[in-house]
Amino acid sequence: MADAARKDPYAMRDPRTQYPRPAFAKQPQPAPGLAKDMVPKPDHGEASYRGNGRLRGRKALVTGGDSGIGRAAAIAFAREGADVVINYLPSEQKDADEVIALLRGEGCKVAGVPGDLKDEAFCKELVAKAVKELGGLDILANVAGRQQFAKSIEELDTEAFEATFRTNVFALFWLTKAAMPHMPPGAAIVNTASIQAYEPSDILLDYAPTKAAIVAFTKSLAKQAAEKGIRVNAVAPGPVWTPLQPSGGQPQDKLVEFGKNVPLGRPGQPVECAPVYVLLASQEASFVTGETYGVTGGHMLP
Ligand code: NAD
Ligand code: MG
């Protein structure tokens, strides 16, 4: 599978068996997890994403770019010709170093800016650093997110509820507000929603509403930003094999069968989200704004 993908990412294959299917081993990690400690290793496109110059010369900031879907977007953006700044938490430096080493080894321009997006001042500083590093900003991909399950409302405290909203919603506001003045017509913002916006799980009482907020934020902002020639869209993944899940996103007994219930019968891999981030960021999506694009394995958006 991985070998075939390495040779030709466009080769026709059965999507049901293209990537690992459950059952998976239990593998608890403290949050935020590390991709490097997952079994099986997620495919972020390291060997399987091939670029075609679709973002040549663009300047992109990707949050959560160390691992999972954000790493896949960062790799894809860089291979499509963009210069990329990734943000992540300081505890994720090892994952970030892997991305930076990989892309620099290929001659791409990539830099890391660690820091906590729950802090408004840091969000402003991150955008300023990215603008300085890149010489401007054409793409803001908001991929970072917090997901920690809680079995019941009694187990969910204000601190956790607030941390989820600050990470997933407030940071989106702060980053966007800081970034937009730097973004020229033709620039694009790509947010990260979830199937949870539409089909909330009982154990994600804080997380699911943040994802619904992101869908509405995307639509509202798209209307405003159209006046500036900036497009705003969201990607809504279904189950994707990333460190978010074993590090408290799911109970371990659910992780074992993660992805089993979608029609394709397996979780997606981060690289399978990447082409949608690229499309929405690129000029090919010039007439697409305010949309939420599902990558769900058949567990469809309404
Ligand atoms: P991931 O753990 O690889 O990525 C999440 C990233 O968020 C982390 O790498 C971390 O760098 C960042 N982050 C979290 N809190 C932060 C903070 N306070 N400050 C700075 N960065 C912070 O997992 P992923 O699944 O790739 O998650 C990426 C996005 O995809 C998230 O928004 C998540 O909600 C969304 N999503 C994931 C799935 C899934 O099944 N994996 C499904 C739907 C949506
Ligand atoms: Mg990470």
Question: How would you characterize this protein structure?
Answer:
The chain starts with a helix and ends in a 7-residue tail after the last strand. Helix content is 35%, strand content 12%. The mean pLDDT is 97. With 302 residues, it is α/β, with parallel strands linked by helices. Helix 2 links the parallel strand 1 and strand 2. The chain has a single domain, classed as Rossmann fold.
Question: How are the elements arranged and paired?
Answer:
Layout lengths: L1 H6 L51 E5 L4 H12 L3 E6 L4 H13 L4 E5 L5 H15 L4 E3 L16 H22 L8 E5 L14 H20 L4 E7 L7 H5 L2 H4 L18 H8 L10 E4 L7
Parallel strand pairs: 1-2, 1-4, 2-3, 4-5, 5-6, 6-7
Helix pairs in contact: 2-9, 4-5, 5-6
Bound molecules: nicotinamide-adenine-dinucleotide and magnesium ion.
Pfam family, one: adh_short_C2
Keywords: Oxidoreductase
Family: Belongs to the short-chain dehydrogenases/reductases (SDR) family.
